[in-house]
Amino acid sequence: MLKIIIDENILFAEKAFSHLGIVETVPGRFISNQLLKNADILIVRSITKVDEGLLRNTNIKFTGTATIGTDHVDLNYLKKNKIAFADAQGCNAFSVAEYVVASLFYLSVKFNFNLKDKSIGIVGVGNVGSKVAHFSESLGMRVFLNDPPLERGGDPRKFVSLNEILKCDIITLHTPLNLSGIDSTLHLINKDKLDKLKENTILINTSRGAVINNNDLIETLRNKKIITVLDVWENEPEVNLELLDRADIATPHIAGYSYEGKANGTIMIYDSLCKFLNVDKQYDFQLPVLQNPVIEINFSTRFEDSMNQLISEIYPIADDDKRMRKMAGMSSSNIINEFDNQRKYYPVRREYNNYKIKSTNLNETIKSVLAELRFKII
Questions:
Q1: Which one of 63, 95, 155, 363 is at 20 to 30 Å from 328 when CA atoms are compared?
Q2: Is 263 left (phi over 0), alpha (psi -120 to 50) or beta?
Q3: Ramachandran region of residue 366, left (φ > 0), alpha (ψ -120 to 50) or beta?
Q4: Helix, strand, or coil here: 173?
Q5: What's the mean pLDDT in 298-321?
Q6: Annotated catalytic sites, by residue?
Q7: Closest-CA residue to 139 (of 320, 303, 342)
Q8: Residue 248 has what DSSP assignment?
Q9: Handedness of CA 34, 24, 338, 246 (dihedral sign)
Q10: How far is C-alpha 65 from the geometric centre of its chain's CA atoms?
């Protein structure tokens, strides 16, 4: 019978995969070459480095990652050794886009600005970036797109240079971490780029920590006010405490951690593995229905204030930030444990489309915005 090693934080792991073989769930950082000696299938998240060091002299035939990124996987090694591979691209795209929306409404209240007065530059417009662009347009922002690979590939959308993006009021990063080549994104945002940002630019990173040179960002923040939203960190789970202190919103790589996002990741890998094994799917993924999906809200205040109140009832991003700041003053080892635990025990967060909005004073503009954000209106 097949032996399947799965990261213990993958939703539905044991229940979904048990009919395919003997399932052993393991903390992602403890998956080792020795553990895989007698295993056939490996399913991981981004914290497990999948390379020759992990897979050498094992019988692994299939590797899946329940994530949208693959920078932790040596794809060339897998191909060379004829190990099948599957990822979960797009699984949590709505989750990340909704995180960006939540952060923008939170900041619009904190710093008293209207989103319709802002321009937003989106770097990377694949699954996630495209949804961020759609949401941003629905909120009345001027949207600018940058994605050289898509532009070269003939994508019909209008793209601008990175230098044009740097002029925007809001910049949000949604690229993979490419370490080399023409489309390298390692330290894509460095001192040179940061120097070009105007005061009070909002910089959001939900992609990979090393897309921004964190040391350069710290140096910039010492001398210039850049409003920063950081969900990912260079060298995570180690977190630079000065950068944590200077960030306006800080979270532990959970932008994509909606319940739906995690479930979709499992479903996509499950489907791929069943196809690889040529067996019928048996597990029925049923997500729990919300018991109280109706939110009553009065839209009599400023739009941003009302929307922040609404979204905070669904996803209080300030709570994630508060938990993250518990790391201040911790030792390096304690920071690592705290970072992992905050992800492991992350509260259940459901996506916007699960909720119904009830209000007596919705105008057509607000109704349109709510619909574009996937809320149901009753």
A1: 95
A2: alpha
A3: alpha
A4: strand
A5: 95
A6: 208, 236, 253
A7: 303
A8: S
A9: positive
A10: 14
pLDDT band of 69, cuts 50, 70, 90: confident
Residue 112, CB-side half-sphere exposure with 13 Å CA sphere: 0
DSSP secondary structure string for all residues of 339-363: HHHHHHTPPP---GGG-EEE-S---
Predicted pLDDT of residue 300: 83
* Residue (of 322, 316, 324) closest to 252 by Cα position: 324
User: What would the pLDDT profile of 331-356 be if each residue is shown by its tens digit?
Assistant: 999 999 999 999 999 999 999 999 99
DSSP string, 227-243: EEEES--TTTTS--HHH
Taking the mean position of all CA atoms in its chain, how far away is CA 294? 26
In the predicted model, is pLDDT for residue 301 greater than 90? no
Cα 106 to Cα 112: distance, rounded to the nearest angstrom? 10
CA dist list (Å): 292 to 289, 296, 310, 317:
9, 11, 14, 20
The Cα–Cα gap between 189 and 166 comes to 10
Q: How far apart are CA 227 and CA 199, in angstroms?
A: 9
Angle between helices 127-138 and 93-110 (to 10 degrees): 40
